Amino acid sequence: MTPGAPWLIVTAVEAEAQAVRAGLATGGCTRGSTVAVVGVGSAAAAAGTARLLARAEAHGPAYAAVLSAGIGGGFAGRAPTGATVVALRSVAADLGAESADGFLPIDDLGFGTSVVTGDGGLAAALRAALPAALAGDVLTVNTVTGTAASAAALAARHPAALAEAMEGYGVGCAAAGAGLPFGELRTISNPIGPRDRASWRIGDALAALASAAAALATVRP
After folding, report:
1. What is the pLDDT of residue 60?
2. 197 DSSP 8-state letter
3. Cβ atoms within 10 A of the Cβ of 24, count?
4. Structural domain boundaries of the chain?
5. pLDDT per residue over 19-62, tens digit each?
6. Among the listed residues 120, 154, 116, the one whose alpha carbon sits nearest the alpha carbon of residue 135
7. What are phi and psi of 29, to 5 degrees?
8. Which of 129, 163, 174, 175 could disulfide-link to 215, CB 3.0 to 4.6 Å?
9. DSSP bridge partners of 59
10. pLDDT surpasses 50 at 3
11. 100 backbone dihedrals φ, ψ, rounded to 5°
């Protein structure tokens, strides 16, 4: 990340933004980057990111890339608590229709796509900077998964999915509309499935997010 090529890094909530800012400061790459809270959920994230990008187009600074960053849930056996995940694709997992034969993604309905593919060069750079990170799909959901049955169904429908969160697809759509490289970075706070707050490790996930952000100094979009 260089002063001449600032990034827009968006999070859902202020705690995530604070972790990213702390990591950037540790890594010595605060100058030129914007870390902004855009809200929870795909719609709020898309609207907030689009507003920031439109403002940048009109008044500057011009961003080199957009990164959706935050914590999320990990699929059991794929992304354990404490892991860092680089999204290769951000998938709107519940954007579609129910049918007698099961869920139909919007792609099958002919109304667009439920997938935003992350920029390949950016994903490769993130993985190089974060060698311990896992790479795969990150699902964007409007309702966080809360039962074992729902988790199993999602995992079966998305064999490449490592994690779920609520904003990546919306941020990716805004980035695509502005013609900018997009990536998503998640650190895992809890397993996907039955809601067991005692097992959540939000503090550890935020610390992992800060550590990941510190490594962004070596990344070029």
Report:
1. 80
2. G
3. 22
4. 7-218
5. 999 999 988 765 578 999 999 999 999 999 999 999 999 988 88
6. 120
7. -130, 40
8. 129
9. none
10. no
11. -65, -25
